[in-house]
User: What shape does this take?
Amino acid sequence: MEGCYLLWPYPSFPLMERCKLDFCCYKLMTFILCKKNMNNLVLSLAPKFGKLQNLILRQDKPQLSDHAVETIASYCHDLQVLDLSKSFKLSDLSLYALAHGCHDLKRLNISGCTAFSDTALAYLASYCRKLKFLNLCGCVKAASDTALQAIGQYCNHLQSVNLGWCENVTDVGVMSLAYGCPDLRTLDLCGCVLITDDSVIALANMCPHLRSLGLYYCQNITDRAMYSLAHSCIKNKPTKWGTGKGKNDDDGLRTLNISQCTALTPPAVQAVCDSFPALHTCSGRHSLIMSGCLNLMSVHCACAVQAHRASTAFPHSAH
Assistant: This one.
């Protein structure tokens, strides 16, 4: 039964056809609850699945209570993946319970949980040190520099962090992540309006595996940050003696969102585009996202330039 999925209740997927699961099975690995009566289902079923590893709680409307999360933490000590997104009714009690009961958490999604405080999040980080993926999008109160300092100190295996629209985050918090989480690969800072070039420079210097960076509406970002990213590629480029930081040719930025970063100029952004071949501006492959930056219209990836040359040369070759 390991690795099976239970969807309950889920009208589009008949229970017996999807998993044929005996409710007495204690090796259930993935449990997805949705639709109605979620709170009562969690309270009644969590004690029966002590080996649960993945729990995704999808809600049409906020239902989940702290008591339900406390029950999960009390019985499901092997939990590794937990999605509590949009659980508006939850308070810090839930985070404290998870900190004590679920030390093996690797993926935690609490996006939209606006009632959590930074004190509770910092406390969770001190106990759940195996975290690799953390979604804090919209957690304005929880995602503060204080919490990020704790995360950088304790959660050194983090690979992906979403801080979208966490408007209280400053360079202090982002730099704590950069210095404490060297394996960081995906970081969404969209809407973090207080950060400056210092955050990007720290990421460029300390996170050699960074693949995706979201800077949408970070209007304090200037060319200095872009040149730092471009230089990080050159600095970490493999040499004939080996790779300086263990990087391969395929490493480096693959997605960069600088939409609404209106202080940037074409030469600086072009330098980043030239340094990371996986960044594309060509049709259908947009991974360098620059919407709202009309001054960057001249920035193009290599294949976009080649395609343009081919299209302009074709009519001449026909004569």
Summary: Confidence is low (pLDDT under 50) at residues 1-27, 239-247. The radius of gyration is 23 Å. The first strand starts at residue 5 and ends at 8. Residues 1-79+87-92 form one domain.
